[in-house]
Amino acid sequence: MNKNRPTRNLKYFFAELMILIIGITASFALNEYWQQRMEMKQEVQLLNSFKNNLVNDSTMLFAGIDIMTNQIESAQQLILMSPDAAYTDSIALDVVTLLSYIPFNSEDITYQEMKSLGTTYIIQNDSLSKEIIGLYERAYETIYEWSDIDASHVKDKLITFTIDRFPFAPNLNFAYLRPAKKREFMTLIKTDEFKHLVQWGLLYKTSTKAVFEGGLVNIRSIINLIDTELGSN
C-alpha cells in the first residue's frame, strides 16, 4: 500500500493542476468577455455622440448653403444689372444681402476628446474610423479655409466700401433715402470698382458653397455608416 501513495499523490497533483489551469483560463476568458462588452458599450456611446455632433454640423451646413444660394443670385443680379437701371428696393436688398458671410464652427467635442484620450481604437470599423478622421482633419479644414476667405472679403472689401462710399441709411434701409441719395447709391453700385468686388465675392461664395455641399454629402455618408455600425452592434 505504501508503494501506491506516490501514484495517488501524483494523480491528485495533476488533478489540482488541471483545476487551477481551467480556473485561470476561465478567469481570463471571463475578463476578456467583460472587456469586450465594455469596449462595445463605449463604442456605441462614442458613435452616438459622433452622430449627434454630425447632425448639428449638417444642419449648420444646410442652412449656410441655402443662404449662400440667395447671395450668389443677388451677386449675379448686380453684375448683370442694366446701366440705366433705376433704384428699386430689390436692388438695395441684393446689395445688403452680400454684406454678410457664413461662419462654420463644427461641433467637434467628441473628436477632440477622442484625440486627446487616444481612444480611436474603440471604433472597430477601420473604414468608419478613417472616414471620421478624414472629415475632421481634411474636409472641415477646407470648409474653414474658404469660410475665412469669404469672410475676409466681406469684412475688408465690401463692408469697407459700403462704410466709406455709400450714403447713410438707418439700418441700411435705402428705401428711406431721398431721391437724390438713391441716385447716388445707384451710381456707386454700377461702378466697375463695386462690380469688381461683387464679382470676386461671387467667386468666393460659389467656392464656399461647393465645399459646404461636399462636406454635407460626406457627413450624411458617415451618419449612414454609423447607423449601420450601431445596427450591427
Describe the protein.
79% of the residues lie in helices and 0% in strands. With 233 residues, it is mostly helical. It has one domain. The longest helix is centred in the first third of the chain and has 75 residues, at 5-79. The protein is rod-shaped and about 120 Å long. The two termini are 61 Å apart. 23% of the residues are buried.
What is the helix fraction of residues, given as a range? over 70%
Query: What structural class results from the helix and strand content?
Result: mainly alpha
Radius of gyration: 32 Å
Total strands: the figure is 0
Please tell me the total number of domains. Answer: 1
Largest sheet: none
- Please tally the helical runs, counting DSSP H or I stretches of 4 or more residues: 6
Task: Give a summary of the structure in a few sentences.
With 233 residues, the protein is mainly alpha-helical.
Keywords:
233 residues; mainly alpha; 6 helices; 0% strand
Question: What does the secondary structure layout of this molecule look like, with pairings?
Answer:
Elements: H1 5-79, H2 89-97, H3 109-117, H4 126-165, H5 179-189, H6 192-232
